[in-house]
Design a protein that fits this description.
This protein has 242 residues and is mainly alpha-helical. The protein has helices spanning 5-22, 32-58, 67-76, 81-98, 103-110, 113-128, 153-174, 181-196, 214-241; strands spanning 135-142, 145-150. It has a two-stranded antiparallel ribbon. Strand 1 and strand 2 form a beta hairpin. Helix 2 packs across helix 3 (67-76), helix 2 (32-58) packs antiparallel against helix 4 (81-98) and helix 8 runs antiparallel to helix 9 (214-241). The protein starts with a helix and ends with a helix.
């Protein structure tokens, strides 16, 4: 009897993330009903976004691009974390605006829960044999290619996620007024993901010009956006002081 390894680990990660946020509800002005709406919006956005970016990522490998093909992969295709992440953030933002809450505060609130969830989900990737690494002189063997030893990139990313989670929690405890939690998470993860993509061996994630993957492009965009935003804010602050 086969067990859906990824589904089990992703569910464990989701439960851990929701429980973590529930235990910290006193830090934000949310009722339990509002909390559930935020979670529902996050999950809905995650599911939609992860499918959309998967389809975008496989476009270079498709022999024929049509609405029928795109529709098929939207329904039966895989999922991409970055797409799920962006979709989840969009879902939380929309629900926050509908509830007339400050989106930035809620996004910072949920930020540490994202790497907590993802750390468990990546272990599920290892168990199910997806998102595997390149050939290596030590590591793990996947079921579909037991003759090849691969770099355990799934565990490496899981480790990075848990480290980011711990760092965000430590920062929150030490800081009297923690801010920009989402920015800290996005920047930290984008750097880790960009590097780890060089150790990925699967091509379904989407390989574009110069061998750059879809996730590396998204990582670059995230880091670039954060840097530009920081520079703009610093410039505005300097002008205000003048």
């Amino acid at each position: 009897m086969a067990f859906p390894s990824y589904g089990i680990m992703a569910t464990i990660g989701l439960c851990a993330a929701v429980l973590f946020l529930y235990c910290r509800l006193d830090k934000v002005d949310l009722s339990f009903k509002q909390f559930l709406l935020i979670i529902m919006g996050a999950v809905a956005g995650l599911l939609v976004g992860s499918r959309i970016l998967f389809v975008i990522g496989i476009l270079p490998t498709l022999e024929e691009i049509s609405l029928k093909t795109i529709g098929y992969y939207l329904v039966y295709g895989g999922i991409v974390f970055y797409g799920g992440l962006l979709g989840m953030l969009a879902g939380v933002y929309i629900v926050a605006r509908l509830m007339k809450k400050v989106p930035g505060l809620l996004l910072d609130f949920i930020a540490p829960a994202i790497p907590l969830f993802h750390g468990f989900a990546r272990i599920g990737c290892l168990l199910s044999g997806c998102c595997y690494g390149i050939k290596w002189n030590w590591g793990v063997r996947m079921v579909d290619s037991p003759e090849i030893v691969r770099f355990p990139v799934q565990l490496a990313e899981s480790f990075c996620d848990f480290i980011i989670f711990i760092c965000l929690i430590v920062y929150q405890k030490k800081s009297q007024n923690p801010q920009n939690e989402l920015t800290k998470y996005l920047c930290s993860y984008a750097i880790c993901r960009f590097v780890l993509e060089f150790f990925r061996g699967d091509t379904v994630r989407g390989i574009w010009i110069f061998g750059v993957s879809t996730s590396q492009i998204v990582s670059i965009i995230i880091i670039f956006t954060i840097v530009i935003r920081k520079l703009i804010l610093k410039t505005l602050q300097c002008k205000h002081l003048e």
